[in-house]
């Protein structure tokens, strides 16, 4: 049996000097790095790279910053400098020619790029929360917000608890402060991620934390989601709040009214992984006893346009043709909007490796093809039903020239459907589409739009995964 061995995630050490603003910058950088799969190192010795966030406000603070850089160079050697002293890059480089990169305050993208270069992230579909393309710098108009680390479950195919440990939630006040900063800096969409978002706050005993505006927040998924939904962009818009990796525990029902109120996107990413009770039991999946189909119907009754995304594993040891057919029938009934599927693969250290009755590679492949075919058909039908409607779209990319000036070879890139090649096109996403993993909305005649703009779009056409339309 081929068992996949996982690479170790790179570790970042952080020395944060300076004012509370600098600390918020550090938090924000760490959030992105954590979302990218980096581990934090509490000491110099265990770090693959050390980030020094400096202060340059007073001479004494500058001296302290230079000392901190010197110490990091001496103790570790691989150092990236950021923060206010980064404005004086020559001073730093003169004294420490070995620093790997120097960036200034609020240059999040540059710092994260420097860390990526010094200690490249190791993409792994077995442990990553962010799609591989998301490891590249996410544009400012959307950000991943990691709310906890680790997991209390022990799914048979998963090695995350042994790598990341048990659930460890971040304080809700710290998450909200960071979310506020992100939104103030141009983020229009927050993608809430963790291994198990619905378990958020369990380890904090769902304690209540005071906020600086005099209100308070409970360390609980629904309370945190409600607070996030109360944020406003500098233009007064409500940012999109998208919840990923939510298990269907009973309390998830309480997040659905927040969708009806427009505080949270009508979107749930629930990694069901299978439908057959026998396979789910063998997988040791959490919340598998819930009557999921009935709950999906109830959610759709409250929020008719809710989009449910899920992923499934096919070919888990012991999965029979009857189990697989059960999954297909269930999917047909559940009518999920977005489906990702994986062929089971043993990962070093996973309990499932020792289970009897492995499924052959041919069967896995065949089942994978069949589940993808069914989900593409369901998706195509659901998208076709949107033709003629008007929906909200968040713009991700805008073409830099009209499609008819690109020549025949380039005309398809980011362009509207071939049937409507007119003018400058743009590509965005609807509320039902998470970046990188779901579909897109391709626009024609989109001149004047910018990435990060919200627009109303009339849908004119659809295919298996994408929509095509025109801004109103
Ligand atoms: S819920 Fe299961 S699959 Fe998800 S991280 Fe925890 S153990 Fe792994």
From TrEMBL:
Residues 384-472 form the TRAM domain. Residues 399-417 have a biased composition (Basic and acidic residues). [4Fe-4S] cluster 1 binds at residues 19, 55, 84. It is found in: Cytoplasm. Belongs to the methylthiotransferase family. RimO subfamily. Catalyzes the methylthiolation of an aspartic acid residue of ribosomal protein uS12. This is Ribosomal protein uS12 methylthiotransferase RimO. The gene is rimO.
């Amino acid at each position: 049996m081929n068992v996949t061995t996982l690479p170790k995630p790179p570790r970042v050490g952080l020395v944060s000097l300076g004012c509370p603003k600098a600390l918020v910058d550090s938090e924000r950088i760490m959030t992105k790095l954590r979302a990218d799969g980096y581990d934090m190192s509490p000491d110099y010795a265990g770090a693959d790279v050390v980030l020094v966030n400096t202060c340059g406000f007073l001479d004494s603070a500058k001296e302290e910053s230079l000392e901190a850089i010197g110490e990091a160079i001496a103790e570790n050697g691989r150092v990236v400098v950021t923060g206010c002293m980064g404005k004086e890059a020559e001073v730093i480089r003169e004294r420490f020619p070995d620093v790997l990169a120097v960036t200034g305050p609020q240059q999040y993208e540059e710092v994260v790029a420097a860390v990526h270069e010094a200690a490249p992230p190791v993409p792994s579909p077995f442990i990553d929360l962010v799609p591989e393309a998301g490891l590249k710098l996410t544009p400012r108009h959307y950000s991943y917000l990691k709310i906890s680390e680790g997991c209390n479950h022990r799914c048979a195919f998963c090695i995350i608890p042994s790598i990341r440990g048990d659930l460890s939630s971040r304080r809700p006040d710290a998450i909200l402060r960071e979310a506020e900063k992100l939104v103030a800096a141009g983020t229009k969409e927050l993608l809430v991620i963790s291994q198990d978002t619905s378990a958020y706050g369990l380890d904090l005993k769902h304690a209540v934390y005071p906020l600086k505006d005099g209100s308070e927040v409970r360390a609980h998924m629904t309370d945190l989601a409600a607070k996030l939904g109360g944020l406003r962009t500098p233009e007064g818009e409500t940012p999109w709040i998208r919840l990923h990796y939510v298990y269907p525990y009973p309390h998830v029902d309480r997040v659905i009214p927040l969708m009806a109120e427009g505080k949270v996107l009508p979107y749930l990413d629930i990694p069901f992984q299978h439908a057959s009770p026998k396979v789910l039991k063998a997988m040791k999946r959490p919340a598998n006893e819930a009557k999921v189909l009935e709950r999906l119907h109830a959610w759709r009754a409250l929020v008719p346009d809710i989009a449910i995304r899920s992923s499934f594993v096919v070919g888990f040891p012991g999965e029979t043709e009857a189990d697989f057919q059960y999954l297909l029938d269930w999917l047909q009934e559940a009518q999920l909007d977005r489906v990702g599927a994986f062929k089971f693969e043993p990962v070093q250290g996973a309990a499932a490796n020792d289970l009897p009755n492995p499924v052959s590679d041919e069967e896995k492949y065949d089942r994978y093809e069949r589940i993808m075919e069914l989900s593409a058909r369901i998706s195509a039908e659901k998208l076709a039903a949107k033709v003629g409607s008007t929906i909200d779209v968040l713009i991700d990319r805008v073409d830099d020239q009209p499609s008819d000036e690109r020549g025949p070879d380039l005309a398809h890139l980011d362009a509207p459907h071939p049937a409507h090649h007119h003018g400058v096109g743009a590509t965005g996403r609807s509320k039902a589409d998470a970046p990188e993993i779901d579909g897109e909305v391709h626009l024609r005649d989109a001149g004047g739009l910018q990435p990060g703009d919200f627009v109303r779009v009339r849908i004119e056409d659809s295919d298996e995964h994408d929509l095509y339309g025109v801004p109103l």
